[in-house]
Amino acid sequence: MQGQSDNNSLRRQRQRRILADAFLKMLPTEAVIYREEELVPYECDGLSAYRQVPLIVLLPYDTGQVQAILRYCHTNKIPVVARGAGTGLSGGALPHEEGVLLSLARLNKILEVDQPNMRARVQPGVRNLAISDAARSHGLYYAPDPSSQIACSIGGNVAENAGGVHCLKYGLTVNNLLEVTLITIEGEQITLGGGGLDSPGLDLLALMTGSEGMLGVIVEVLVKLLPIPAKAQVILAAFDEVEAAGNAVAVIIANGIIPAGLELMDNLSLRAAESFIHAGYPVEAAAILLCELDGSEDEVTVSVASVCSILKQSGASEVRISRDEAERQRFWAGRKAAFPAVGRISPDYYCMDGTIPRKRLAMVLKKIAEMSERYDLRCANVFHAGDGNLHPLILYDANIPGELEKAEQFGGEILELCVAAGGTITGEHGVGLEKIDQMCAQFPDAELEIFHAVKAAFDPDNLLNPGKAIPTLARCAEFGAMHVHAGQLRFPELERF
Amino acid sequence: MDSNQDISEVLQAEVIQAVESGQQLCLRGGNSKGFYGRELTGEPFDLSKHQGIVNYEPTELVVTARGGTPLSEIEAALTAQQQMLPFEPPHFTEASTIGGAIASGLSGPRRPRFGAPRDLLLGIKLLDGRGQILNFGGQVMKNVAGYDLSRLMAGALGTLGILLEVSIKVLPLPPQETTLLFEADTENAHAITQRLSLDAAPISGSCHMDGELRIRFDCDETRVSQLQKRFGGERFENAEMFWQELRDQQLAFFQTDAPLWRLSMPPAADFALPGEQLIEWGGALRWFKGDHSMETIRSAVGVTGGHATLFRNGDRSGEIFHPLNPTVTLLHQRLKRVFDPKFIFNPGRLYPE
């Protein structure tokens, strides 16, 4: 065995040398990273449980260099994993053992903010928040706001169809794009979408959005910008029961109000956030709702009043309205820091990302609580209540043998529960490598075969991010053999690896 | 009479038979958009009997309906709950169906504010060109599991398969709609809509023709008065009929046998070819009638980053839709083979195959 791994390591070093020589001929020296110690920072994305040092990392400076890299990889059948800021939570940018990690971080220019047409042309490595910062002086902003918006890049947002807390009213990434320029695995540059709202032909822009780097490499993005609302206010409501908070959401929507943001936190997550951020959350509450309303002064005044009365009628024990911008920011700060806050109360946590029909929230939370007892792991829940996207955060300690596996099994069971409840295994984080087995619970073989055929239409040699997002049928057969049906392990006493 | 029925198994058997015999099919819902796209070929294949709302829960903001369900039926159900289809689909006849509305990808005056069918479509049940019934997407707002093949069907004009069921995001009806009328030439009309847009005015429709600009707002009386004070314009009463006639192309402008072009372009872009224009979507959609060659029109629109479709009339066997880059064309052809390997659905309706 030892000899075999030595051989493998020698072979990798040889292959690394070959690639380094080849790429150093076509790229500037600083664009090629091949020393082991410099490669280590790229071994994982935001999901650090999975690690793999790539063969080589390339950091091109322009589109021409991206084309040259892809042409070479296509000719020589080298796998390519594209990477933005590396903040993804599903292992989508986990490097390939035998492949190139293609970082788009140096394509980081805002090319144009076009006020008359309310749009911005940016390179893929531009940070999400940097777009809004650049647009602010024009009175505009970019609406999708994933919690990682300080760090995550727009290219990664497109690849994952990133969401955020304002999706219900302003849509996902796919709803806020006009045009994407990408390089195919053959090195061809194509533009999808266009300058108008509609585009000719099949909607390949929609197909590309959320395709997790499997179909092409994004090199330029034209995003829509929106006018900054004149006013925004947040209401914080405390509830003694989670179910009542869930019902309040339905009543708000039934009254014809679409809040800009609508977030629910359960007791464990709101306590964690409070002790971290001191946002002033009521720590005794079973759940809190944060409801943001935006628009003109008058509109906000009217809708804040009606939402407050709905919340009180729905059994809120306390209702607070942000008095000024500082307080609005403070109310949000706790929610936006919920993940790191949970990180403070546990050595490790594992973040899930299911979506469910909102009316099933109480049932799903009850079942998660039961699982939490069964697995003997705590679970904090943060919920994009407006659009049904649930983030259970499973608390565990990776230093305790078997606990990571237990957390993963717990997480897998939650996702299968989301599917059974009529929802999906991922609302906004993507499948990546992490949820690839749960794809088998969500899709039958016929659909998976179509996914593979779509992949082959763009990338016949399966070189772009191979092994991610769509499981092979063989993998699903194996996964199915371990499961009698959703969530029911045939041999619950056995450990799974 | 209850017309609510699920005939997916019948349709599936017929498709399988067509695949086996090599019979090409011309998919037809309400048959209200036969004028659109490239010329129709294949045996007419009626989908209108597969109809009915499968599920509608107002508080989940989602409606699921069979493809053959008339738009009017869905809209009546939504209106009863004070909700709407946000993309405001055109009804070219009373028979227009939801399947056709999604497959055509067309939307009405609300499009800039709330999106097109592709933006609101959450999931589909598809009958593909092998006769398989497949589910993509779902009934929830956020779903990134697998490639987004639902949205790919919006605007595909039935070339990839039959939409047996569609799940669509719905939104509350605005509490009130008010329309303001401005006297304005093209330049002024652009300036007014742009200032209003940058001011975050809740514009739910705009139409400029014959020196008149009409703008519809989804907001209450107070806000409209404020807007009017700042931007001018007078109240345009009984506007509902106007917007409906615009959406359904009943206005006199559209009554023509001459080629009618649909130009999609950046809202502030210039388009100066001589001819008659009706401008919607704050400039992002322009209907154009003018005596120019296809090449002249395409190049005038192309330089702005937009594209031109020959929407009605003219030679329907030609390049109705804007030509695509060769690599994109190749991707279209490969995707067609993924979903319809025997080329039985709507052959050549979108592009020559």
Structure summarized in a few sentences:
The complex is a heterodimer of chains A (497) and B (353). Chain A has helices at residues 2-26, 36-39, 63-76, 128-135, 154-160, 167-170, 204-208, 242-254, 267-277, 297-313, 325-336, 338-345, 361-375, 403-420, 436-442, 445-458, 473-482; strands at residues 32-33, 56-58, 80-83, 100-103, 110-114, 119-122, 140-141, 177-183, 189-193, 217-224, 226-227, 231-239, 261-266, 287-295, 318-321, 348-351, 354-355, 379-384, 389-396, 483-485, 488-489. By secondary structure, chain A is an alpha+beta fold.
What does this structure look like?
- The complex is a heterodimer of chains A (497) and B (353).
- Chain A has 17 helices and 21 strands.
- By secondary structure, chain A is of the alpha+beta class.
- In chain A, strands 12, 13, 14, 15, 16, 17, 18 and 19 form an eight-stranded antiparallel β-sheet that branches. A five-stranded antiparallel β-sheet of chain A has the order 5-6-10-8-9.
- In chain A, helix 8 (242-254) crosses helix 10 (297-313).
- Helices cover 39% and strands 20% of the residues of chain A.
- The two termini of chain A are 21 Å apart.
- Chain A has helices spanning 2-26, 36-39, 63-76, 128-135, 154-160, 167-170, 204-208, 242-254, 267-277, 297-313, 325-336, 338-345, 361-375, 403-420, 436-442, 445-458, 473-482, and strands at residues 32-33, 56-58, 80-83, 100-103, 110-114, 119-122, 140-141, 177-183, 189-193, 217-224, 226-227, 231-239, 261-266, 287-295, 318-321, 348-351, 354-355, 379-384, 389-396, 483-485, 488-489.
- Chain A folds into four domains: 2-103, 2-Layer Sandwich (Uridine Diphospho-n-acetylenolpyruvylglucosamine Reductase, domain 2); 110-227, Uridine Diphospho-n-acetylenolpyruvylglucosamine Reductase, domain 3 (2-Layer Sandwich), CATH 3.30.465.10; 231-340, Alpha-Beta Plaits (2-Layer Sandwich), CATH 3.30.70.2190; 362-379 and 396-489, no CATH class.
- Chain B is α+β, with helices and mostly antiparallel strands and 353 residues long.
- Chain B folds into two domains: 8-172, Uridine Diphospho-n-acetylenolpyruvylglucosamine Reductase, domain 3 (2-Layer Sandwich); 177-312, no CATH class.
- Helices cover 28% and strands 24% of the residues of chain B.
- Chain B contains eleven helices and 17 strands.
- Chain B has an eight-stranded antiparallel β-sheet, sandwiched between helices.
- Chain B is globular.
- The mean pLDDT of chain B is 96.
- The chains are: A alpha+beta (497), B alpha+beta (353).
- At the A-B interface, strand 9, helix 7, strand 11, helix 8 and helix 10 of A face strand 7, helix 6, strand 9, helix 7 and helix 8 of B.
